[in-house]
């Protein structure tokens, strides 16, 4: 836990008591703040109160009883409509921030670097942390990924903190000072939370507002919104390192054919790293390598570390090979663009898909339908996905994950792949994509009578 002592004696409200909110509440209590913690869900409030967190509504008769509001990013605060607490706080001039802003204030001596993008940010974050750690520097990684910001290890002075930042967090991270930041891609996602595509792009662009003077902006230039951002930053005189997996760059980092190029010079064949398959992972490598180089890691040290990267749980994670069938957990694929990255890597796919649908559904995945031997539909998206798949892909409406796993177990032939890559959010049936992936892993291991680890 990171100590938040600079708010000792101050009245602080925490809105949202999920993972990040709970970690924030505990850090504030440990630092001596006067805490009012709240969640709109009664069961969540009850659980927090039972754990010793003081649960008090900070909004009293339209007034906010706090000097600062720490907002859990998963809770809408502006779109689709303003939350009453956020609206009242802003009207009163009370700052509304997320836990990342507190972390930055609590650890001004740390070297902060960050990764964002619609897809690929978790792999890039863990990969970058691995490159930095293997170079010998104390490193911690978290934020939107895994460990909440204020639950990170308290590193020695000068340690590197690698943050995965969502568009929600980027709106509320005032005060964060980044030595380097990487933006991977921007495709439509979370549009309801940002009032449309323009608002979503603006939230992602805010990543670079947090760079310290002389900091490095690493920007993938394979989509139009990111190209425009790279050009705008360069036009302002900022240090920009462009990356691409579609073209070889004479200046920047690129890997159009799986060979990593540093300013046009080949430095590594990425096709020899089995934990980083496919073009999407080559982009992740380009970004992590570029940030690591900006942070002083030598090319040789960075390439050596790539060989020992263990991979990311829930992202094309090989759970088991049963009867010559590979069972792959890609639960982190919560939209079609993320699922595309898995479909392109496999043939003869028994595809478990569905959940709470995102904008655009799975229509964009039509070019990969010939790779799918059978689709197993689960969750709220079933009716919509039936309309997309009918007449194009054999499918079964399974309803729940367990039924899908059981049917895939009976139908998948040797040499095929059973792929959980839902292209949907998990919240209709699970607590999180991690929960969904863990349940899948347990079910698969149960097929062999082994215990999942």
From TrEMBL:
Q: What EC class is this?
A: ligase
Q: Mind listing the GO biological process terms from this record?
A: cell division; cell wall organization; peptidoglycan biosynthetic process; regulation of cell shape
Main localisation: cytoplasm
Q: Where in the cell is it found?
A: Cytoplasm
Q: Which residues bind ATP?
A: 117-123
Q: Name one GO molecular function term.
A: UDP-N-acetylmuramoylalanine-D-glutamate ligase activity
Q: In which pathway does it act?
A: Cell wall biogenesis; peptidoglycan biosynthesis
Sorted keywords for this record are:
ATP-binding, Cell cycle, Cell division, Cell shape, Cell wall biogenesis/degradation, Cytoplasm, Ligase, Nucleotide-binding, Peptidoglycan synthesis
Q: Gene Ontology cellular component?
A: cytoplasm
Question: What InterPro entries does the record point to?
Answer: Folylpolyglutamate_synth_CS, Mur-like_cat_sf, Mur_ligase_C, Mur_ligase_C_dom_sf, Mur_ligase_cen, MurD
- Report the catalytic activity: UDP-N-acetyl-alpha-D-muramoyl-L-alanine + D-glutamate + ATP = UDP-N-acetyl-alpha-D-muramoyl-L-alanyl-D-glutamate + ADP + phosphate + H(+)
Q: Which residues form the Mur ligase C-terminal domain?
A: 314-424
Statement: the UniProt record of this protein carries the keyword Cell division: yes
Q: What does this protein do?
A: Cell wall formation. Catalyzes the addition of glutamate to the nucleotide precursor UDP-N-acetylmuramoyl-L-alanine (UMA).
* HAMAP family xrefs: MurD
User: What is the name listed in the Swiss-Prot or TrEMBL entry for this protein?
Assistant: UDP-N-acetylmuramoylalanine--D-glutamate ligase
Q: What organism, scientifically named, is this protein from?
A: Magnetospirillum molischianum DSM 120
Question: Which lineage?
Answer: Bacteria, Pseudomonadati, Pseudomonadota, Alphaproteobacteria, Rhodospirillales
Gene behind this chain? Answer: murD
């Amino acid at each position: 836990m990171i100590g938040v002592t600079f708010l000792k004696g101050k009245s602080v409200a925490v809105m949202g008591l999920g993972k990040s909110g709970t970690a924030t509440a505990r850090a504030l209590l440990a630092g001596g703040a006067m805490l009012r913690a709240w969640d709109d869900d009664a069961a969540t409030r009850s659980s927090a109160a039972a754990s010793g967190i003081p649960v008090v509504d900070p909004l009293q008769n339209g007034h906010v009883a706090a000097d600062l509001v720490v907002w859990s990013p998963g809770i809408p605060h502006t779109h689709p409509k303003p939350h009453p607490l956020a609206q009242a706080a802003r009207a009163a001039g009370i700052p509304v921030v997320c836990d990342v802003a507190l972390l930055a204030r609590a650890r001004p001596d740390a070297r902060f670097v960050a990764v964002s993008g619609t897809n690929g940010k978790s792999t890039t974050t863990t990969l970058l942390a691995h490159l930095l750690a293997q170079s010998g520097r104390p490193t911690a990684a978290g934020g939107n990924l895994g460990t909440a910001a204020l639950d990170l290890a308290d590193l020695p002075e000068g340690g590197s903190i690698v943050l995965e930042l969502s568009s929600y967090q980027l709106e509320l991270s005032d005060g964060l000072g980044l030595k380097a930041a990487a933006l991977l891609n921007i495709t439509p996602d979370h549009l309801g939370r940002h009032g449309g595509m323009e608002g979503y792009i603006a939230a992602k662009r805010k990543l670079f507002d947090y760079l310290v003077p002389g900091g490095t902006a690493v920007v993938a230039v394979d989509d139009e919104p990111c190209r425009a951002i790279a050009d705008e930053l360069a036009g302002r005189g900022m240090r920009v390192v462009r990356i691409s997996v579609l073209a070889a760059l004479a200046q920047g980092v690129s890997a159009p054919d799986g060979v990593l190029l540093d300013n046009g010079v080949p430095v590594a064949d990425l096709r020899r790293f089995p934990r980083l398959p496919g073009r999407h992972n080559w982009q992740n490598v380009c970004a992590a390598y570029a940030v690591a180089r900006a942070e002083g890691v030598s090319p040789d040290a960075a390439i050596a570390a790539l060989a020992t990267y263990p991979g990311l749980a829930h992202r094309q994670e090989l759970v088991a090979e049963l009867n010559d069938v590979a069972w792959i957990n890609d639960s982190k694929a919560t939209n079609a663009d993320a699922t595309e990255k898995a479909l392109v890597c496999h043939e003869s796919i028994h595809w478990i898909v569905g959940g709470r649908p995102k904008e655009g559904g799975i229509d964009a995945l039509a070019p990969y339908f010939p790779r799918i031997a059978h689709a197993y539909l689960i969750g709220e998206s079933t009716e919509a996905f039936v309309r997309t798949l009918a007449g194009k892909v054999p499918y079964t409406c399974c309803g729940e994950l367990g039924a899908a796993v059981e049917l895939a177990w009976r139908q998948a032939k040797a040499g095929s792949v059973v792929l959980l890559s839902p292209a949907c959010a998990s919240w209709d049936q699970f607590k999180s994509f991690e929960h969904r992936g863990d349940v899948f892993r347990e079910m698969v291991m149960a097929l062999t009578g082994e215990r999942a680890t």
